[in-house]
Amino acid sequence: MTILRLSQRPGEELSADGRVRTIDVYDLDAVELTDYSGLLVDASCDQRFLAARRDRLSTWVHAGGRAVANGHPIERWLDGIPAHRTLEFHTPADLWLHELAEHPIWAGVDRRDLIFRTGVPGAHSFQRLQEIGVAGFYAHAYLVDLPDGATAITGIGQGRLPVDVAWPLGDGEVVLHIGNDLTGFAVPGATTEHLAERTLTYLEKR
Fold it and tell me: Whole-prediction pTM value?
């Protein structure tokens, strides 16, 4: 079984070995979900469209599917999806990321490697990134009203407010990252190097 990726603007595949099938989110109705072990939803996807298919998607997860969703939850298109709040921030300390719980997707990831981004080419030390980088790309909001049984994986700011959460849904599980696509934060040479691969492995139930 392979992974189904929903995208608003399908481009390059995440994997060249056929493990991932990327489709336009609006083509979802033509797909048999039971052919897939995992569902990866890009942050750009039309949540109103997905919400109209909440029963179908939730039933698939209840039956044992795994879903990784990205972006700010606007519509509750899966059972248990929490709400979100905008984070008030003034300094990088307000956007600092903290590990709250272990999860196979984030295994070995130093949350500091997710805080800063820069357009300056080349590899940079964390100290240098603090000087030239910009914080807030990973997350600048947080999740509230978490479903029963949810685990907060990553927290933001001094309050360590949840930005990555996972919760059981029947025999399956949902992971939600409130930010840009999680797989895009894999950086060679950093502890995040295998973040995309671990996401796919998780969705394959390996």
Answer: 0.91
